[in-house]
Amino acid sequence: GAHLARALxxxxxxxGALTVGWVVLLVARLARRIFPRASPTCVRGAAALxxxxxxxxxEFWNQSLSAEVYTLSTFVFLLAYWSVLRALRSGRPGxxxxxxxxxxxxxxxxxxxxxxxGVMGVALAWRALKAGRxxxxxxxxxxxxxxxxxxxxxxxxxxxxxxxxxxxxxVDRLFFPETG
Length: 180
Prior knowledge:
The protein is an all-alpha fold and 180 residues long. The chain contains nine helices and no strands. It has helices at 2-34, 40-56, 58-64, 70-90, 93-107, 114-130, 134-148, 154-160, 167-175. The longest helix is centred in the first third of the chain and has 33 residues, at 2-34. The chain starts with a helix and ends in a 5-residue tail after the last helix.
């Protein structure tokens, strides 16, 4: 029990640290593209500042210290974002398929990223359209995104075996203690 809790807390902290590092790398890359004449010191400073701001944000800090999925889902979302940027830059269909898979996977952590995932998915589809590969590639992109959503398949099994926290049962017990 205690070892599992400690391991989960450490995983949250690990993914929190990886997320902060990934933000630093992404901001540095984006700053170099947006401001090509900026000095390397300025780019590194902006990237480091972005990392410090995220790492010191109260909510992010709290989630990094507890057994929650937020740091993992943020890391996966940033990985998907980087993958989309790479796919759009490279123009390779394989990069677009990987990005679509990671976009689907990022939805399994937090649905709050759905609008951004939708926009990035449309960008991938648009790039396939511009490459003249709609008929072949759009079904592949949709299939890759659906493959990324496969962790949701575990929910019916977990619900049938009462594994984890059954949120509806918890709400029933909280609000209807006599019957829940």
